[in-house]
Amino acid sequence: MKLLSLSYERFRNLEPVSFEPSPHATIAVGENGQGKTNLLEGLYLLATLKPLRANRLSELIRFGSPSAKVTGRFLINGAEREISVEIIPGGRTAFVDGKRAGSLDAYFGGVSVVAFTPDDLSVVKGGPDGRRAFLDRSVFNVQPAYLDESREYARALKNRNKLLKDHAPMSHLQAWDATLAKLGAKLWVRRRALMTALVERARASFQRIGRSPLEAQWHYEPAHLGEGIDFSAASEAELTERMLERLDARLTRDVERGFTSVGPHADDVEITLGDKPARAFASQGQCRALVLAWKVAEIENLQQANGFLPLLLLDDVSSELDPERNAFLMGYLADSGAQTLLTTTDAALVQRAAGADTKWFRVRAGTLTEEFRSASSTG
Amino acid sequence: MTPDAINRLVAQLAKLPGIGEKSAQRLAFHVLRSPPEYARALAAALIEVVDRVKLCSRCFSLHDGPEGTFCGFCNDPRRDERLVCVVEGIADEMAIERTREFKGRYHVLHGVLSPLEGVGPEQLRIKELILRMQDTPIEEVIVATNPDVEGEATALYLTRLLKPIGVKVSRLAQGIPMGGDLEYADQATLARALAARRDL
User: Fold this and answer.
1) B116 vs A159: CB contact, 8 Å cut-off?
2) DSSP-assigned states of every residue in A174-229
3) Of A101, A274, B180, B198, which cross-links A94 as Cys (Cβ 3.0–4.6 Å)?
4) Distances in whole angstroms, Cα of residue B130 to Cα of each of B58, B107, B115
């Protein structure tokens, strides 16, 4: 898969622009607030139909405009496809080759991205919700159906919580318990499969990033699952049964607090460094290395699952990394051969990711200008 | 100035689903231009529908017979009273009826369980279904609610109520549509069809 061209219309502060990225690194340089991130935001939207850093899709529309549109031409499995997404307040429409994409399955066929933003760097130290979102995004990247599944789960959960708050009769609650357990077990199985595919790779890449003699470990296991069940081996039916039991066992407490305390929404990814919880003991630099290792694992896993490298989006990450880890990342990008879009405030930081075919753009007040520089004149 | 009578008609028509202000105006002028008998017949039909059509007091399908009598489905002696199909609404009942395959009786819930929208068992015709079990020899209940979160929860709720009474409870199967191409089936449907595959 290759991204051939990108164009933006009424997208945030970007002036209408169309450009052809490099088959490898494309680097947008600019001060903060000039529109660099918006370039990545648009491409991420094309690939996932979700915003990257904005809270709501409608924030992506240029102030005072009725709608925004991003279009990308991709080479997918040897065929050229034009994919575009139009956003209006309250909704978005996806088009493939000018035709409205009927179903999301049809849409999520060939484009995959891995994004890396400064927000990701706080995942290790932040709250469990951040780690769940991080994990879920990785699952979605390999299993697009996960999006619908987790939405269904969230809906069943909201309904059950409403019943808990209303002190609904047991008979009514049990119907929702069974529904929730079925959907919850499905999410557990999906997350487990992803962890299995990713953890070894992440451990190995953490070693490669180096500067730490400690072993890193990622561990996911449902909270409050109880004794006598092996999560790593349990079938979906067994997990459904167990979740149902646990919902039942924790009912009094759940009714008291007005929310459901067991299920995929209450889990956490435990990250340890040399047997100590990274959340409490890892240094800032180690935390970043842990996130970096996970992202590299995700890229490798996607490459294996899809047979091609995902597009990589890096939003001003280099300024957040120490020089050695940044050097590792830039070297990794250059060696991987992946098509990458990077933004930075300082061109020197990403120089190592650049090659002969790198395209440089300067972003100023929403305007994109291509800069031609020889490899020797920069850095 | 448009006469108030026309404004009133346009305002009423524009309340109909799918009808905007302009379409409402066009419909109003159409009525006005048509012979007066048409307007009288339309008005009579509208009034008749609200005055005469009620819900059957047994299965809650639509019914226009005299008070205290049952609907056509419940009265039809050729229909098997041992078999009851539970549906969310009238439209679902009509869909199943179009198959001409189902020769049992119906029970219309008029909704599904949805705590977020304030719909609990008391808002649905569930109690009436249980009462029905007592005075008719029902052997099997087919739960035909939609395969979404709310429909599933409703089906499970009914199962828990009905099983202890000793009645067989079944659920509509999910899978590939007839005459459908596998290649056109969405992932969720295909995955469910795979999971629910059967022996040959």
Assistant:
1) yes
2) HHHHHHHHHHHHHHHHHHHHHHHHHHHHHHHHHHHH-S--SPEEEEE--TT--SS-
3) A101
4) 11, 11, 21
Question: What is the extent of the structural domain holding A6?
Answer: 1-112+310-379
Q: Do B149 and A163 touch (CB under 8 A)?
A: no
Q: How confident is the prediction along chain A (379 residues), in pLDDT tens digits per residue?
A: 899 999 999 999 999 999 999 999 999 999 999 999 999 999 999 988 888 888 889 999 999 999 999 999 999 888 899 999 999 988 899 999 888 886 666 676 678 899 998 888 889 999 999 999 999 989 988 887 888 899 999 999 999 999 999 999 988 999 999 999 999 999 999 999 999 999 999 999 999 886 778 999 999 999 999 888 999 999 999 999 999 999 999 999 999 999 999 999 999 999 999 999 999 999 888 898 899 899 999 999 999 988 889 999 999 888 888 888 888 899 999 999 999 999 999 999 998 888 889 999 999 999 999 998 765 444 4
| Whole-number Å distance between alpha carbons of A248 and A267 | 18
Which chain A residue's Cα is nearest to B126? A172
A contact residues 103-122, partner B, Cβ 8 Å cutoff? 103, 105
Report which DSSP code applies to A11: B
Residues of B with CB under 8 A from a CB of A: 113-116, 120-121, 148-150, 152-154, 156-157, 160-161, 186-188, 191
Closest to B147 measured CA to CA, from B118, B98, B188: B188
Give me the residue from A152, A175, A182 closest to B157, CB to CB.
A175
* Domain stops at, among A273, A305, A337: A305
Candidates B149, B157, B161, B162: best to mutate against A (most CBs of A within 10 A) is B149
Residues in chain B: 200
Same domain, A231 and A299: yes
Q: Does this chain's domain B4-52 share its CATH topology with B79-195?
A: no
Out of A305, A328, A357, a domain closes at A305
CATH class entry, domain B79-195: alpha beta
Residue in chain B lying closest to A163 (CA): B115
Q: Which CATH number is B4-52 given?
A: 1.10.8.420
Chain B hits for A175, Cβ within 8 Å: 113, 153-154, 156-157, 160
In this structure, the answer to whether residues A293 and A168 fall within a common structural domain is: yes
pTM, entire model: 0.81
- Residues A314 and A330: their CA atoms lie apart, in Å, by 11
